[in-house]
Amino acid sequence: MALSRADTSTLGRWWWTVDRWTLAALLSLVGFGYVMLLAASPGVAERIGASSRDMFILKQVFFLAAATAVIVVISVLPVKQVRRLALLGCLGALLLTMATLSVGVEIKGARRWLHLPGVTIQPSEFMKPCFAVVAAWLLSEGKNWGIKAHGALGLLFLAIVAVLAKQPDMGMLMVVASVFCAQLFVVGINIFLVGACGVVGILGAVGAYFAMPHFRDRLNRFLDPASGDTYQVTVAMEAFGHGGMLGVGPGEGRLKAMLPDAHADFVYAVAGEEFGLLVCLMILGLFGFIVLRGLLRLLGERDMFVILGATGLLTQFGLQAFINMASALHLIPTKGMTLPFVSYGGSSVIAVAIGMGMLLALTRRRISRSAQDEE
Questions:
Q1: Which H, E and C letters describe 91-151, residue by residue?
Q2: Side-chain half-sphere of 63: how many Cα atoms within 13 Å?
Q3: 3-state helix, strand and coil shares in percent for the chain, rounded to the nearest 5
Q4: Is there a domain that residue 4 lies in?
């Protein structure tokens, strides 16, 4: 793209202020998403009886293309518009997530999805990035609004925790809580309150173990594989071993046909079998680069809202990727969480794109706070 630094158009100012390295890394992940879609989805489409395998694939191609557009469009927004978008998105997603409890589709014992004409969405996916930015805004306004800002944030967080626990979606709850704790740490919360949050988290996990059979079974199978069905994890580990260093080649994997969630939760295992260890390390490196690059971008930042918002978005992005890859490698108990931009799933892809678009918008270089406000 040949744009002069003297170009004062919206596109020109965006190009010279956005973090182009992070943008390139994100687009590379989208590219991996296309490749893994072609590798993992056909077999899954046939197994689940999709009416048209091509439509199954084209649907995700559309979502990936839309995600690319979403990243770019949102990254152009000024900081104030990002804040407004996050607030509206968080409240809307929370209301829709509440609606899943009464009119949602139940899958595997959980109500997390809403059926809309032609599409099924998971509203809580959109709540994650929006809440990270809203929490950053309310925390940064604490000095001006005092207890009002902190009270509003506390009520919002408790509402989100309650609805996610009711669905139930413990993985999503853990990610949201972890992001919130990371932001509290950055803003400088009292160490005793940090300890109290840790105790509450431990007690919550213990309570979930005894109150939720699904959660208890997954943890028991992780600690003692002989205690239950570990079929998917076993096949995933075989896929990594079969792929070796360079993989068996695109489309040549055989174990992916045995993985029910090869296109989603275990897409990293498909990458391991067909493309090998080197490509898996490349994917891991891209996620690590985006997170570290984003944090380094904040070193000279003085706006606390930008610091907290970007920290929350990066924590969420990195944690979601870690959970997916670590589950496939049997490093943690299995959890149905997608690998950002690589796994199949429209809600996840678009929601992550919204978060990364916000990240790019928040971390754009600005000459001064006054110039930032003018935008």
A1: HHHHHHHHHHHHHCEEECCEEEEEEECCEEECHHHHHHHHHHHHHHHHHHCHHHHCHHHHH
A2: 26
A3: 75, 5, 25
A4: no
Tell me how many domains the chain contains: 1
Domain encompassing residue 174: 10-374
The candidate with the shortest Cα–Cα distance to 153, out of 118, 189, 126, 108, is: 189
| Domain contains 243 | yes
Extract the tokens encoding 166.
């009711």
In a domain, 1, yes or no: no
Q: Which token pair is 277? A: 């260890």
Query: What is the pLDDT tens value at each position of the chain, 375 positions in all?
Result: 456 666 667 777 888 889 999 999 999 999 999 888 887 776 666 665 555 555 667 888 899 999 999 999 999 999 999 999 999 999 999 999 999 988 877 776 678 888 877 778 899 999 999 999 999 999 998 777 778 888 899 899 999 999 998 888 888 898 999 899 889 888 887 777 777 777 877 887 777 777 777 777 777 777 777 766 678 888 889 999 988 898 888 878 888 778 777 788 889 999 999 999 999 999 999 999 999 999 999 988 889 999 999 999 999 999 999 999 999 998 888 877 889 999 888 889 999 999 999 999 999 986 544 344 444
Contact 68, 109 (CB under 8 A): no
**Using CA atoms, how far apart are residues 28 and 19, in angstroms rounded to an integer?**
14
pTM confidence score: 0.90
Structure tokens at 258: 């045995």
